[in-house]
Specification:
This protein is mainly β and 466 residues long. It has three helices and 20 strands.
Length: 466
């Protein structure tokens, strides 16, 4: 047990163990003269009751927790045509400060779950340039069921009116209790993601509905409002990704259809397997349909895509990273719970690598959370090539990192020198800290989808598709 947590347990135990006289002896560290020995400060001895163990994730209805930290966004693009001596573009870096205030709300319902805990998170992101401050609220819903802490999903809304509701199917396991160093588990990708994005000046929203299966395959439907990308433009997009890497991206713009069809990688006698990408000026093309453009390029994901892979692991007690910059009153070591997710999108043409780690101490919960995400893009969305598909990947690397540390809590165990606050349930704050971060990752994905659509429309207009 962590030293600070052990001290909290002893103080709480002083008011509960063996009645008032025994308590007096234990807390005073002496003998009452009644033959009752004092409790050992180093642990229970024969004939005494052990110290109570604080909850790993303490929390009660109405409690508030304040986290703050730093975020860094990096962006780098590469030349489409690699020539001797060519170099990538300089890395663009954006930094800012993040503040999150989380309020615990019990007895909530969401995604078919009852008696859930809602972690209501009010977030503010202030960019270092001083030119932009964004605000948002996220409600993350969870519940402890037997030995598992389950995440049912979240609801997000920001100051511009953008919304996103994510419902996990089934609920995802965030941690297993009691903590067991070396324990490992995983989740599937199953989820329903519904987005409403602020559209034109009239307030018409872009609506997105994506159904993700456990293996990472997905189907998505996007409706764009009038005037979204250009005057008089209206579009409806459909994406379908399959287990073997094949898929389609079809949309109708102003009554004119366009469909992109992706083949699975085809092995070659030498060199990497090849992908064929055909563009059709119709919906639901068949084997007899004639494409208006055909592109062949080396497979950037090998012979078969790994669409989704997640590993969750308890690394046991470690030193809290210095980047957390914890206050002196908090422990300097904690249990690390790390989540690693790798995804591949063969339709939009990118990979995503996300690592999130939370540092947990009994009696305190999550002291710090570190989040890192890297998206590597393999299709050209800049509009400066005849196609959006090139043979010189990667073309773009976008990364996002964030560190959030606990600053204060309305149930701070150090506010009282004698009694630790009671905990009504086990609450893992990590999903709430991660929800806003994942929204930023989703925003970048949406940018990919929009660019491929706009680039193809512009290429068709100028007759550049070939």
């Amino acid at each position: 047990m962590h030293r600070e947590a052990r001290i909290v347990a002893r103080r709480f135990g002083c008011f509960l163990l063996m009645g008032f006289l025994v308590t007096l002896a234990a807390c005073a560290g002496g003998n009452t003269g009644l033959g009752v020995p004092p409790l050992s400060v180093d642990g229970p001895s024969r004939g005494t009751r052990p110290d109570p163990i604080p909850s790993t994730y303490p929390g009660s209805n109405g409690e508030t927790l304040v986290y703050s930290g730093k975020m860094t966004q990096k962006f780098q693009s590469f030349p489409e045509v690699v020539a001797p001596g060519s170099t990538p573009e300089p890395v663009s870096v954006t930094k800012g400060n993040v503040s999150q205030t989380i309020t615990v709300r019990t007895r909530q319902s969401f995604n078919g779950g009852k008696q859930l805990v809602d972690l209501h998170d009010e977030e503010s992101d202030a960019y270092a340039s001083g030119l932009k401050v964004t605000t948002s609220t996220t409600d993350s819903f969870e519940k402890r069921q037997a030995s598992q802490l389950l995440n049912y999903g979240s609801q997000y809304v920001d100051e511009s009116g953008d919304t996103m509701t994510t419902s996990y199917a089934p609920p995802r396991v965030e941690d297993t209790l009691p903590e067991n160093p070396g324990a490992q588990w995983s989740n599937g990708a199953g989820a329903l993601v519904l987005e409403g994005l602020a559209g034109d000046k009239k307030g018409s929203p872009i609506t997105v509905s994506r159904t993700v299966h456990d293996d990472g395959t997905y189907s998505e439907s996007t409706t764009y409002p009038p005037g979204y990308s250009a005057l008089g433009y209206t579009g409806v997009g459909q994406i379908q990704e399959n287990t073997d890497g094949t898929g389609t991206y079809a949309f109708v713009a102003n009554g004119s259809p366009l469909t992109i069809v992706y083949s699975q990688p085809v092995p070659q006698l030498s060199g990497p397997p090849l992908i064929t990408i055909g563009v059709y000026q119709q919906l639901d093309p068949t084997s007899g349909s004639t494409p208006i453009s055909v592109n062949t390029l080396a497979s950037w994901y090998g012979t078969a895509p790994a669409l989704y892979n997640e590993i969750d692991r308890d690394f046991g007690e470690v030193a809290v990273p210095a980047s957390c910059a914890l206050r002196s009153k908090f422990p300097k070591s904690a249990t690390e719970i790390r989540k690693t997710i790798d995804t591949t999108d063969t339709v939009l043409g990118y990979t995503d690598h996300e690592v999130s780690a939370s540092y947990v101490v009994p009696g305190f919960g999550v002291l710090c959370s570190t989040l890192q995400d890297t998206q590597t893009l393999y299709y050209d969305f800049n509009g400066d090539q005849p196609f959006v598909f090139t043979e010189a990947p990667p073309l773009e690397i976008a990364s996002l990192s964030e560190t959030l540390a606990l600053k204060s809590s309305s149930a701070d165990v150090h506010k009282s020198s004698r009694i630790a606050p009671p905990a009504s349930s086990d609450l893992d704050i990590a999903p709430a800290l991660r929800a806003g971060f994942e929204r930023a990752v989703e925003t970048n994905r949406r940018r990919f989808a929009n660019h491929i659509l706009k680039t193809l429309l512009a290429a068709r207009t100028r007759g550049a598709l070939r």
